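Hi there. Long-time user, first ticket. I'm pasting a complex I've been working with (about 1308 residues overall). I'd like to know whether the download I got is complete or cut off, because the file seemed smaller than I expected. Thanks.
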Amino acid sequence: MEIATTPQRFDTAELATLLAGRWADVRQRVRKSLDENPLPPPEDPGTEAQREHVLAQMQQLATHGVAGLGFPASHGGEGDVGGSTVSLEMLGGNLSLMVKAGVQWGLFGGAVVALGTERHHDRYLTDIMDMSLPGCFAMTETGHGSDVQSLGTTATYDAETGEFVVHTPFEAARKEYIGNAARDGRMAVVFAQLHVGGEQHGVHALMVPIRDEQGVAMPGVSIEDSGRKGGLNGVDNGRLYFDHVRVPREALLNKFGDVAEDGTYSSSIRSRNKRFFTMLGALIRGRISIAGVSGASTKIALEVALRYGEVRRQFENPGTQAETPVLDYLAHQRKLLPALAKSYALHFAQEELVSCLHDLSTAEQVDEWQQRELESRAAGLKALSSWHALHTIQTCREACGGAGYLAENQLTGLRDDIDVFTTFEGDNTVLLQQVAKGLLTNYKDEFEELGTLGMARFVADQFVGAVIERTAARKILQRIADAAPGRDDEDVLFDRGWQLNLFDDREQHVLEGVAKRLRRATSDGADPFEVFNNAQDHVLRAARVHVDRVVLEAFVAAVERCTDPDLAVVLGQLCDLYVLSTVEEDKAWFLEHERISGGRAKAVTEAVNTLCRRLRPHAVSLVEAFGTPRQWITAPIATGAEAARQQEQRTHEQ
Amino acid sequence: MEIATTPQRFDTAELATLLAGRWADVRQRVRKSLDENPLPPPEDPGTEAQREHVLAQMQQLATHGVAGLGFPASHGGEGDVGGSTVSLEMLGGNLSLMVKAGVQWGLFGGAVVALGTERHHDRYLTDIMDMSLPGCFAMTETGHGSDVQSLGTTATYDAETGEFVVHTPFEAARKEYIGNAARDGRMAVVFAQLHVGGEQHGVHALMVPIRDEQGVAMPGVSIEDSGRKGGLNGVDNGRLYFDHVRVPREALLNKFGDVAEDGTYSSSIRSRNKRFFTMLGALIRGRISIAGVSGASTKIALEVALRYGEVRRQFENPGTQAETPVLDYLAHQRKLLPALAKSYALHFAQEELVSCLHDLSTAEQVDEWQQRELESRAAGLKALSSWHALHTIQTCREACGGAGYLAENQLTGLRDDIDVFTTFEGDNTVLLQQVAKGLLTNYKDEFEELGTLGMARFVADQFVGAVIERTAARKILQRIADAAPGRDDEDVLFDRGWQLNLFDDREQHVLEGVAKRLRRATSDGADPFEVFNNAQDHVLRAARVHVDRVVLEAFVAAVERCTDPDLAVVLGQLCDLYVLSTVEEDKAWFLEHERISGGRAKAVTEAVNTLCRRLRPHAVSLVEAFGTPRQWITAPIATGAEAARQQEQRTHEQ
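Hi, the file is complete. Here it is re-exported in full:
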């Protein structure tokens, strides 16, 4: 097996430019604004102090204008939706700050922009941007997190007074985990079931004041602190209860549904389900930011672990009589380098996703298919990126041994904070199931009406094979794929076309398999709920392999964009490592379905080992190129303390 | 595919008895003594308060006599080594307490017992047991954790004064992460390179006072606080530096090596390496306790998640018009039930390991092979149990969604505390490598002398196939294995004999494969370090599949001990689930090596799904049977809060 010679050096500046991508200027701007925004001390100062620290940092971000990036230019913002997402991603070293900023400007502010109309924009946006109106996004309830469509809070229109009455009818309907609620928030976008004249119109959002200027809870509003969490303790999460709280009719964020003074309900979208999903779709930025910042945190953890792995030594090599840097051990490389390769893959996929979001947000007309495709990618990438982050940060922690367990070395804090990213802004398992449903139904209009039950029936009736649509940008990839050699070629593992075809073929096969299975089972007259539930592992796998394909295509496209030949080789090998370690993880499937032979399966493992060895000398350069703001890397083991100790020990021993 | 009908109920009391095992009385005693030993509040009270709380709980344990279990009866203890290990395992709900107790009575006290002689026992043991002498086990250094044989602290004998001079020659040689050091410890067992009359005799341990009665550091001793950690913040870890600290000659724990007044060194063990490994072997209890308590914490997390999964509902089933309990979803079952099955498997393997430790500790004569086998099992089970704990607790956290992220629901705290168990008391990766080395060399005497380099040479020269020894207790298993049907039988997946043979065959094949590979590569004249390093993933796999086999045998033996027929069926199906989910995880290997066909591979996945569905109704009973002390389960979501909310919501909706 031949792998091209790995260049000894490459143009790191070009790599950094490639990685900075379309919003390089925003990255630079945020990096600068963060210069005066240091990390809180690693010693836990207690919840209250953490919250204060994060609030101060938020206010500082607001003065630098970063907050305005995503708001309409008509109201003092910059209308740069993509840039705003990237700016949140840059906060990966301080996830409490990122989440609190995401709540204020992304979710709370974003909801006012996307679900409200001119009257709300005029009244609130300036105050939201400059933090003079801290707010909450009150959607999740204790009883309903994943299934928000079933939430229990009610907003009943009282035509006599022209007001809505917002109410929490039972404990499970209290608003739960609401960021900014426990301490700072003064207003909340409250999602509630809208009742008008005895009729139910589904979930709508209203602006509800929760505290006065002095910070005292408004009449009828009860606020509880959610208490200590596994992480993100700089965010003041709380619970909200409403006891027949009255707000004026104009408090309704009325872009997708409105109530006239006389109590007439109107909406541009007739179907209640479709209306709900359209509202959710308008809030897609939050999920995309979560995917991005998951990547950013992963990069920090990898930088800490790789820098430490390069200088930390353990066990003498009798051949050289020196202790061996731990990153020279294959087992250590295998822990960190495939994770680095996957981080690259996800980085480029994220860049594509943000671009797509940005372009759609500024497009004159967005067709429904594009919007669904965006939502599907956001869901899939959010799930894969947050799990990748959690697993990689944990792996980095273990790779740094006891040193990795000291709070000062950042890894446990990052892990604690990132943990909840796998279940908030959509539980990962639920999100992957949505991705699969979209693929199985090709985003047919019926989609939202279907639910789990109808899905199985729909697939049974109408699914006619997985139609995987391709955008124009994919054509170059198709050319590469078409040029792939036949299966028996020796070095096929490193052929980009073969790799693309392999991922593509797996996706098609799994998707068609699920469809066939659902169709077969349903035609037997079985209970559709049971049918779908029994196939759940299969359905989730369909989503995963779909996202894997999307991510690979983004990585391949980035390699193609590379103009420096040495860099192209290194990046290409990193892409090979991503592909082959992904194949290795799912080797059972490829063998079971005779996509690779036993012999080639062994060659995959050997190739992963070889690529790890080859890329090891570049590991630190590759992780540096991400351009993580320097003040997010404070771990003593990654910033000189370990290197100095090793030096002192060697001097002593000489 | 036919699976025997799963009984609707079974004798839970018999199951509890089976699980309580040989030290049922100790479990009961500790459970009782813990009645007045509640968990600290979930709100983080700050490091100092946490430490105080844990110290108070330690003192309470001491007054209940639990501390004395493992100490010699001649000195006021009970000489029950197995019971003492089980008593630490019972502290799984409060890992700071477990670790601090483990440091004081297991490591510090254990070192005095195992490495010291009568003079040390007489002088110290009573004070250690009743906590009037809090102490430290000062082995690890900043520069050497995994490779403790290379530590840098020196103890130089001064024949003129009859004293040892203990010294920290450079920063990397400071004692790091020493439990009890930052706050409470007054004495430390310090491991240091022994220098006598210009000669080096390797690592030895000495009793060194570090604080006086008033808590002031002794002259020449500097103590630093290790600071905030990712968890276990109730343990006061610290760093120790020694600046030419003098202790009397009698401070040397002199069981395996002594220095006479005139400076003559003597030892019953000539080889320096062998002496070192004999000392380490005498301290094996710590590692076994870690494996046990990892299991205990896993059970707590599973109990919280399963109880919640049973009452928590999300998404309506249109067929029943009721929301579905999340544990009814296949994806949810797949997260939790194979983990429950593996927890059973590890529980029985741990019971065997503790029995083995206990019997060897009371045996008249212990042959070296038995001792090595014990050390190997301890290393392997510690690695697998701590990783299983970390992964399962994290999975439970995610399975409880946002509720799982609240500190009050225990899961994040358990995860934070257990995290470091994967890298302390031996880094898991390093431990598995040791297990593999033992297997490859069949614990030949040369073992400890070999190191990584010699290992490869040794295997190349002498390895003649993996000889897997069997104890007498294994004979019944052999009969089951021999009765296994041929490969083509339809329901072979559920045949215990086939399962045993499958695990056994995999172990043999992998082990022989590694041996061949090392032999081949070394005979090519390659650098042995490189050869071994390039095969490191293969070597680690050998250790893993070995431990899997050992664990399965323990589970099968427990099923065989079952007398209640219904219980035997349920437990047997849990064992099937353990086997088949383990096969599923490693399916690629079985396919690649043609141990199972593509068709059977699919059947394995289907069988895992079916077993999950079958066992789901018993999930809570199965986890309850572990008999976790009730005060370790405080999570509101597992003790009624969620059930009450669901009830209130249903009442409201009617």
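A couple of notes from our side: Confidence is low (pLDDT under 50) at residues 446-450, 462-472 of chain A. The CA atoms of residues 112 and 120 of chain A lie 7 Å apart.
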